[in-house]
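Complex 311.
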Amino acid sequence: MSLLQSADLILTDAEFRMFRDFFRDVCGLSFGEDSRFLLEKRLARRVRELELGSFRSYYYMLRRDESGEQELAAVIDELTTNETYFFRERNQLEALVGEVLPELLDRRVRGGPPISIWSAGCSSGEEPYTIVMMAMEAGYVPGRDFRVYASDISRRVLHKARQGIYRPASFRETEPHVQRRHFNEKDGHWQISDDVKRHVMFSRLNLLDPSRLGLLGTMDVILCRNVIIYFDIETKRQVIDVFSEKLQSGGYLLLGHAESLINVTSAFELRHLKRDLVYRKPLPGEERTDPWHAAARAAIRVTDTDGRGER
Ligand SMILES: C[S@@+](CC[C@H](N)C(=O)[O-])C[C@H]1O[C@@H](n2cnc3c(N)ncnc32)[C@H](O)[C@@H]1O
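Predicted structure with S-adenosylmethionine bound:
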């Protein structure tokens, strides 16, 4: 154990900027002045554990090809925000299973491949597992009607996702009978049933890594919820461009409720489904509604309380 105490490790302005730019470029994580102390605390822990003595040595270690890659994975585990739970933003998932999936299956050529759904930034797996549970309960057959792929940059959360063992906090939005049907309780934890678990394919993927993204095929639906909210505008554009490239025409992009594509891209149209708003990549030659216009109308409808409806 190093004798170096946290008081000895103060992140200078120049060091803060170095790490901030590095993490933004490598994985999109953005640290403003308000999260500087948090960054300092987490990095200081790694510097002490590795007995490196200074933030600068740690920075150079992260930039090295071989040792740096391992350490980068470890520090990303510390820096990412992985909050998630089953049935999060339920309306949107109901729209996916009740409206998007039937539409895509209707359009599929007879005997065509299953509808591919990618949960990008899946954290510990609650989101992709929820999709499988809901689609199965609606009568769809995994492997025949749909397939779920899930990825995240953090090794720690992916390990948890593959284990499929959850604490009660993950079930804050789950109906008890659904929990009992798909999980087995053991010592206060809940293990997901194999019937659901085996239908999600997990992999480690950095959404900013072009070499790995190039290996991915095209998808019918991409969910990237509560992930780009942590990225700056340039990084958002970069990731959304990748999604636009990876989506089939007529495919859907589902973002978190606090996220939108305003100022990011006009490559998608905003669709008003019965249960939620979603983005769609238009079919070739299809007339596209202006996403700005549609988003503005949606906002007016929500805030318009004088009873005159849409203006
Ligand atoms: C707040 S969680 C969202 C989980 C889930 N989508 C939901 O809405 O409940 C955000 C996840 O995005 C992942 N993430 C952040 N940056 C990433 C990147 N560059 N590539 C892939 N995943 C990333 C984090 O590791 C984290 O698990």
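Residues 6-79 form a domain with the Chemotaxis Receptor Methyltransferase Cher; domain 1 fold (CATH 1.10.155.10).
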